[in-house]
Amino acid sequence: MTWITWRRYRVRMIAMALYVVALVALMILTQHAFQNAAVICARVHVDINQGFRCDAAAGAESKASYVQTAIALLPLFIGLVFGTPMVASELDRKTNRLAWTQGITRTRWLLGTWLTLAVPTVVVMSLFALVVQWWATHVVSSISSGGGLIQPAQMLITGVAPIALTLLLLTFGMFIGIVVRRFFSPYATSVVAFLVVMGIIPTEVLPSLAPKVIVPTSSYGSIEFSNSLRARPWFIRSSYRRIPGFHVGHHALTVNAAVRYCSNVVNWARYSSIGKGLYGCLAAHGLQSIGLYQPANRYWLLQWREAGVYLTLTAVLLGLSIWAIRRWST
Amino acid sequence: MTVALETVGLGRRYMINWGLRNCTLRVPEGSVAGLVGPNGAGKSTLIRLAAGLSRPSEGTVTVFDHSVDPNSAAFLARVGYLDELRPIYKQLRVEEILKWGEKLNGSWDTASATRWLHDLGIPFDWKIGLLSSGQQAQVALAVCMGKSSDLLLLDEPMANLDPLARQGVTQMLLDSVAERGTTVLLSSHIVSELEPICDYLIILSKSRVQVSATTDYLLTSHHVLVGPHDNRSFDSLNVISSKVAGRQVTMLVEGDPGLLGPDWQVIAPDLEEIVLAYLARPSAGNGAGSETITEARKGEPS
Predict the structure, then answer these.
(1) Cβ-Cβ contacts under 8 Å, B101 against chain A
(2) B100 touches chain A (CB under 8 A)
(3) Which of B57, B100, B185 to mutate to probe the A interface, most A CBs <10 Å?
(4) What are A198-251's pLDDT values in tens digits?
(5) Both A65 and A30 in a single domain?
(6) Do the chains contact at A98 and B87, CB–CB below 8 Å?
(7) HEC profile for chain B?
(8) pLDDT tens per residue across span A99-151
(9) Minimal CB count within 10 Å: which of A258, A328, B28, B265?
(10) Which residue range is the domain that position B286 belongs to?
(11) Residue-range definition of the domain harbouring residue A219
């Protein structure tokens, strides 16, 4: 199995390896660009670490953002190039009829093919992750607004999660290649499904994988909170909550109704004695504005938990693929 | 006698159409069974069901007294399958596909696979995709033969082959049956190719089994009668086909015609005549289609 899979995917593996090498080269080049920018900006007496920009730094940052996108798309490409055709191309060319009538069971055939592609994928992605980690750490530290690896853009490409995400997309592509046959292209379906996974999990699921830190913003608490931390936290979103200990009477507005009411500027004047503008209005209704954060020191905790989610989904999809293959009937 | 392949009420439905229905037959171990029928009769469906590539919609199919289980290594080891489309990994070299077959099959017989290709002069270091379609078919057949199965399910193995290669395939199958006692079920549109090797014949028509009998039975029990068209009654015989030309009638009948008189000629038909007569019967008869097809399973093993 290993050998024939290698033969089938040899050209694509080489192409993907070249893509990875190109990314590594680009990372090294952008790192140099950042160093040069720092030197140039220092000459014009602008310290890019102090929140100011000079054109050289902005240019380097722009190049880095393209590389960042190319890195983020790598799992998607691997899923499309290796995952989706893993079974779909066999079904298209009917070679599954040849393979499934040899001496090994379909389960063994599928696991053999999957492992042949999954093992090198994990190895390459792990080595690549080390380079990305080095690059992101150095580049991000050069960008004043980067805010460390905990930020969503950095979380997407660094740490262990991208390795697990690649494994998930490889397996998801394989699963789609088995079940999406007649009415839709498995490749188009894979692109949509991969983008949904890459869009939903890092933004919707990831922030909840560890309890969020809640910081009141009405008294500039969030700024104090940010300043109290060595590294900038990941600001997830702002929200509202009841002030702890506030007595909610029978006629009190619900949280949503109070927020709607206080959003109207006309109503602010009524509560000027309590506080300024919106915050005064909210306080009168027992509400306070809050910010939800994940501090930078939760980076690895979130990384491992995110990887855990991806690996769990991978195991489920692998199981479903085996089930579907075993029941496959022409 | 042991039965290599048995189907009981076997059917396979594709959406609303039946590819095969109510198929009941038995192929004795060590026999070479030919499967004939027009396009769409259900030949490939039957072979795929027996190979475990299709799941029955109704009925059962057993191979060597065990239900067909495509997820059982024991079943897979005993059955060799050649698909009608000859799917093969075209990016591999000939020697590589043979190595692949060896790795995947415990009972692989390199000699069986390579001898055949050597005889045909197929270059082992060529990519399969560069070979002609006939040569690709031969490589696919070599992989199937190398597996050393007890039951060979071959869907039109002669298609795409030149006359010399057809002869070679025939000889190879006969050798395999003689040396290993292999049971073979092979489909073909060309009955004359089946006649020298088959000792059992299954005629499928309109997704149903029309005839399932030994070739000996078919050849000895059928007769061509040629005589005057005088509305003579043949109630004791099963008239398969009847053709009137002027004042002469030619009939293919099943059964012993006995003594018919000096005006009548009794000729022994060949297998092709018998098959064509049966295949023509559903439409040439009362036109009621498959429901009226009689099933002749005479000569089956008991």
Answers:
(1) 102
(2) yes
(3) B100
(4) 988 888 888 888 888 888 775 555 566 666 666 778 888 888 888 877 777 766
(5) yes
(6) yes
(7) CCEEEEEEEEEEEECCEEEEEEEEEEEECCCEEEEECCCCCCHHHHHHHHHCCCCCCEEEEEECCEECCCCCHHHHHHEEEECCCCCCCCCCEHHHHHHHHHHHCCCCCHHHHHHHHHHHCCCCCCEHHHCCHHHHHHHHHHHHHHCCCCEEEECCCCCCCCHHHHHHHHHHHHHHHHHHCCEEEEECCCHHHHCCCCCEEEEEECCEEEEEEEHHHHHHHEEEEEEECCCCCCCCCEEEEEEEECCEEEEEEECCCCCCCCCCEEECCCHHHHHHHHHHHHHHCCCCHHHHCCCECCCCCC
(8) 999 999 999 999 999 999 999 999 999 999 999 999 988 887 666 455 678 88
(9) B265
(10) 220-292
(11) 213-294
